[in-house]
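User: Can you model how NAP sits in this protein?
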Amino acid sequence: MRAVRLRELGGPEMLVVEEVETPQPAPGEVLVRVRAAALNHRDVFITRGLYPKVALPAILGSDGAGEIAALGTGVEDLRTGSEIVIDPMLGWGDDPDRWQPDASILGMPRAGTFAQYLVVPSENVHPKPAALSMEEAAAIPLAGLTAYRALHTRGKIRAGETVLIPGIGGGVQTFALLFAKRAGARAIVTSSSNAKLERARMLGADLTLNYANPDWQKEARAAGPIDLAIDSSGGETLGKVLGILRPGGRVVVYGGTHPEATIKLFPLFWNHLTIAGTSMGSPQDFRAMLELFSNDGLKPAIDKVFAMDDVAAAMRRLEEAQQFGKIVLRID
Ligand SMILES: NC(=O)c1ccc[n+]([C@@H]2O[C@H](COP(=O)([O-])OP(=O)(O)OC[C@H]3O[C@@H](n4cnc5c(N)ncnc54)[C@H](OP(=O)(O)O)[C@@H]3O)[C@@H](O)[C@H]2O)c1
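Assistant: Here's the modeled complex, given as structure tokens:
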């Protein structure tokens, strides 16, 4: 089969498309013919050695959709030929509140979706929502799961609330916007790019603010109480967000683009604020998230679709934060 492999560190340019042996499903696993995959920042971090425990050579890719090509022994509830989408969270465990210490994410160390075939545990494949193309389905898993858990399971968003989503260019953040609107919430989004803010308005954002403007916090606060924020930018942004939440408000953090945040403690304790952390999501979160795409025509925001051979260019686009929505790889 053809696969994108990372043999040595050094950034997206080090990825090579080559022939490798097609894997075979072990008992309890399925072989998937991948039709489309999608990129996450994790993939870029791995190519640069900025991710824990990088093991090479590796086939990257956490997001994918395709068809079941073969079943391992003992898999009886699935059929070959079924169109599926893959949950990239491996071994979450039984506790819906947190993953098990040995849980992992598809795409290093386990071979990922940037290949014509991969094997995954049978419980990690789910029917592809019928209304979605392979490319749309592939765009959803990691970012959709993370956004769903951040907004719903951890953030407990309610209809009529206002949610602040800083840095709408992020893959997870576009899903947070889609899900917030779906939940009947008002959405305030920020970006460094006016073009991305325009795209966000088209997805339903109620107020869009350029965070290069030093007055963005004032403008956000003037628009009414902010109940919830979903943040991955960290740095100075987390403190700014805490400064404009309503008393009793909450912020859910799932990433650290700027990994160290300095916050003022006064607004935190005086306003009875809550900071919650989250990562990926449980199998229950994944099913509930996918359900949103099975009804009423919800579609992920796709930035651009690249051919598998152009994976390095696709990753550079992500690394340079040029994208709005998900960057997809077509796996021919
Ligand atoms: N814990 C988990 O399960 C999990 C899951 C997914 C991602 N993550 C992490 O979350 C982070 C973002 O992931 P992603 O895939 O969404 O990355 P991404 O697509 O590269 O998004 C990064 C975005 O952050 C925004 N940003 C940068 N500096 C900012 C600032 N000062 N204020 C506000 N926004 C700022 C930018 O938005 P604009 O372009 O709009 O300015 C940029 O597009 C990464 O650290 C990633 O590793 C964690």
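A couple of observations from the model: The two ends are 10 Å apart (CA to CA). Residues 141-154 form the longest helix (14 residues).
User: Helpful, thanks.
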